[in-house]
Amino acid sequence: MSQAPPPTPGPSTAGPPAQHTDGVVRVEHLTKTFGSGPGAVHAVHDLSFEVRPGRVTGFLGPNGAGKTTTLRMLLGLVAPTSGTATIGGRRYDQIERPAHVVGAALEAASFHPGRTARDHLRVYAPQVGVPDSRADEVLALVGLAEVAKRRVGGFSLGMRQRLALATTLLGDPPVLLLDEPANGLDPEGIAWLRGLLRALAREGRTVLVSSHVLSEVEQTVDDVVIIARGQLVHASSLPDLARLARPRVSVVSPDAAALDALVAAHGWTVGASGRDGDAASYELLDVSAAQVGAAAFGGRVELHRLAGQDVGLEDLFLQLTAAPAQQTSAEAPAPGPGPAPVPSSTAPQTDAPAGGER
Ligand SMILES: Nc1ncnc2c1ncn2[C@@H]1O[C@H](COP(=O)(O)OP(=O)(O)OP(=O)(O)O)[C@@H](O)[C@H]1O
């Protein structure tokens, strides 16, 4: 794929200036239940978070966590059961000239296969209220200038993703909501996307990017909002999330009593423990294998296993999203400039078969 030049979407190139917005995306006690009764699907439950301008925020969660439903509520495509979702303090239906305030790319956009990339954008340009020439500007921004006259039917998934992104940029919006934009991009394309999103945030835009894989956006995002089962599990800056990743040591001794005493004497934090006859196993947190090994050697405790593990961010993400939903950002040191977390309810969720509103 060809590289796009650095993005320079300025208001002067995109028609009339956007209406004033502080660019803050705010979700407050947002709940969406599809259907009712025993078949109801609790897609989003009492979800609250805030996304700030000038930063790229990863909106993360496993498949079915409720990311797309939340984005659809922000865009007025799905009515919340309760709670509010606003952009710059307004609900989507209250925003005048919304294409100049928020650009959104949800799931795989559908394009007329017989149209060229340029024509696709020229169809939208008058609706957005920008001149035709804006089509070529945004094609250049997303690295599609060379294929502007090719029919979209022959485009790869990655090229379609770029075209979807170009469409969102037509109105030069200060807020971008992108659902899995890295989907279908090759590594070079992902590196390119990272550069573009970071440049757009540097210009002061609010950039919210959803993904079900943290590692995909780890090098792109400043902040993370992590959800699971429709509820918030963590919101902070990325460095604060990284601080939650705790080193751990797995240790096994055939002498359970001796290992119990050693663990108790050192006051190590026990993540998990088990028994097998006279043998004991422990998973210890915030301690290194070298420290445990030295203590066992000094205390003459026989060990049959000693293994240290650094918990990577992806492991942490899996742990957070696998556990019952709970707010963990309070554990993180000084939240810094990340998204403001709002504790979510820990009411149990029931996943029921889909059906109802789309
Ligand atoms: N129109 C609908 N009717 C019924 N259930 C729905 C509807 N839309 C979404 N759901 C359900 O809501 C839950 C959340 O779905 P959603 O698409 O928001 O999750 P997601 O985090 O975006 O997942 P993915 O990463 O797979 O896109 C899922 O159980 C899904 O099946």
TrEMBL record:
Domain of life of the organism encoding this protein: Bacteria
A single MF term (Gene Ontology): ATP binding
Keyword Ribosomal protein part of the UniProt annotation: no
Residue stretches of biased makeup (Pro residues): 1-10
SMART domains listed in its UniProt record: AAA
One of the Pfam families matching this protein, by short name: ABC_tran
Gene3D superfamilies: P-loop containing nucleotide triphosphate hydrolases
Region (Disordered): 1-20, 324-358
Domain ABC transporter: 25-254
Keywords of the record: ATP-binding, Nucleotide-binding, Transport
Family as reported in the entry's similarity comment: Belongs to the ABC transporter superfamily.
Entry protein name: ABC transporter ATP-binding protein
Organism the protein comes from: Cellulomonas persica
Taxonomic lineage: Bacteria, Bacillati, Actinomycetota, Actinomycetes, Micrococcales
